[in-house]
Amino acid sequence: MLEYGQFVLFDHSQRKSHAVTYSMNPSLFKAYDIRGLSPEELGAAEAGRIGASLAQLFHPTTVVVGHDMRMTSEELERSLVDGLNAQGVKVVRIGLCTTPMFNFAIAESAGAYDLGVMITASHNPAEYNGFKITKSDNTSVGQGTGMEELRDLSCSGNAILQPTHRGTVTDDTGLLERYVETVWARSNMRGDFSEMRIAIDAGNGMEGIVLPKLVKKLGATIYDLYWKLDGHFPNHEANPVQQETLAELQELVRSKDCAFGAAFDGDADRVGFIDEKGEPIPGDIITALFAKMILSVHPGATILYDLRSSQSVKELIEEGGGTAIMCKVGHAGIKKQMRETGALFAGELSMHFYFSEFVNCEATDFAMLLLLRLLQREGKPLSEIWKPLVRYAHSGERNFHVSDPQQALALIEERFEKEASEISHLDGIRLSFGDWWFSLRASNTEPLIRLNLEAANTEQMEKHVQEITTCLASLIQA
User: Among the options 122, 136, 310, 350, which is catalytic?
Assistant: First the structure.
């Protein structure tokens, strides 16, 4: 009989199964995914147990599994697949892939896959890894949709009974070609792009396998940065939200007289853009740009924007005849809300862009091609297209390390609630005051809170940021 904290794992080197003792930290299970230091917190034993727990909870017949290029991804894949196979589950491996490719694989299967698991830690540094778990309808397993139950079973000492047969493993080696062809077809690219110059930074992440095939179709002059896969991320963190990661791309755009630059994160579910002057474009303004394009073709469409976004995004959507709906932060909730509202597009300040053409999932390659179409249509520099959309002074996201995030939120709400004209608890707190607003959210992964604030001008914005910072002073950790 298995003891507390044990489960059966298949040993590839010995070609036999044996009991493995483990101790899994419940904090690995986040609101949207599973993520932690690997292999210290998330190693082979934990991956095998999670695979077996997925099988017991969701009773899938077939699961599709993909992974990124991180140093522990292949080991986690083997153990996860073993855990699933031990429960009689059939696994289809798609190998190295981006998260948009993974989502596409589930969508094109038309229900043939009951679950999907993408092994990645997205934009996190090299020492992390994790799992994104997706259902057959491309909705996520997250907080309120199964993550708590998966955490409880995975971290418990409850034995998982072994069925009478093991599942099988097959490989799908043609996904990349099918994905690129579909993205290209749906982007409806027309005209000659041979005079276009573009700089693209893959950050040594997974986008490096897509770009060579995609840009070959485009015919533009491409200047590449770090397209070689490397799970050590030797050049910079693959995170376009962090301004310091964009320095080389900015210089390349300026020195090569590029129309724009694009920077992808580690699993390519986020993309940031740089204009021809080398200036980063805020994610919420890119949301507004894409919304305007979509509304020109689909008048009256519903567009979602996350609650950190500039007020100008809502105004621009409505001025374009669309329905603007504020949403929570995070892919799990956004995909669900898009389905419920029939939204054609959603965008986040953090540079996740979701399209109904791709079953409400992130489609970064599609987004890059849309930006090219926009430049072609407008016939003027990108800076002249996006800058007029900036109507207010936005702080950008600012993080505060605090000992108790919930206490910090309560303190700030109590301080400002009497002055506020509107208070929302959609995600943390969001208070509006007529000519300015702010939102505060607790991080899902760290003891910190994230502030976004917008006012009529920079002076007022900085004044209010300082006001909130002063209120938090006693709670901020040194």
Answer: 122
